C-alpha cells in the first residue's frame, strides 16, 4: 500500500513540475522531465516493496542477486541506449544549449528544436531536420551562438597599387575613426592595420568586436560598416584592387 502511495505522490509532483515549467515558459523537454520522475517513482516504490518484504522476515539475498545479474545483462545489452540517456541528462542539467538556441556543433550549425532522452533534434541552416544521438552530440565541440555577447567583425580589404602613400595613410586614419566612433564597436581588440602586400594589392585589415550576440543585428551593422568602408575608399581617391 505504501509503495502505491509513494508512486502516486511522485507522479503528482511530476505534473506539478511540468505545469510550473509551462507557466514559466521554460524551454526544457517535458518528456525528459516525465521520464526522469518516472524512473525515480519506480525506484522509490521498489525500495519500499523490498523494505516491506524484509520486515516480513523474508530473505532478500536470492532476490537481490537475481536482480543484480538481470540488471547487468540488461545494462550490457542496452549500453548505447544508456549512454544516450546519461548524455541526455547531462545536457538537461548542464544546459550548454536549450531549445530555440543557435549553435555550432562540430562542422555543422543549426537551431535546437528539442532535447529528448535518447537524441537531440536540430534544424540546420538549410532547413533540414538533424537528429543526433545525445552521446554523439555531447562529444562534439559546441559553440552556443545565442549566448554570445559580442561577434567579431574582421575583414581584409585590398587596395590598388595605384594608391599613393598619403591616400593609404588617409584611408587608414578614416577606417580607424569609423570603427572607434561607431556606437556598437568595442574598444578591446579593435585595430586597423596595413598588414602586407600581395601580387595584386595592398592589404588592409579591419577588426572590431560588435556588442551584440544577435546574428541578424550583427549582419545589419556589418553591412553598414562595409558600405562606409567603400565610401572612404572613394573619398580618398583610390580604388579596390582587381583580380584578388
From TrEMBL:
GO aspect biological process, one term: transmembrane transport
Organism: Roseofilum reptotaenium AO1-A
InterPro entries named in the record: LSM_dom_sf, MscS_beta-dom_sf, MscS_channel_2nd, MscS_channel_TM-2
Keywords, in A-Z order: Membrane, Transmembrane, Transmembrane helix
Protein name: Mechanosensitive ion channel MscS domain-containing protein
Domain Mechanosensitive ion channel MscS positions: 81-147
Transmembrane segments: 33-53, 60-78
Protein topology in the membrane: Multi-pass membrane protein
Protein family according to the UniProt entry: Belongs to the MscS (TC 1.A.23) family.
Keyword Plastid in record: no
Main localisation: membrane
Subcellular location(s) per record: Membrane
Keyword check for Magnesium: no
GO cellular component: membrane
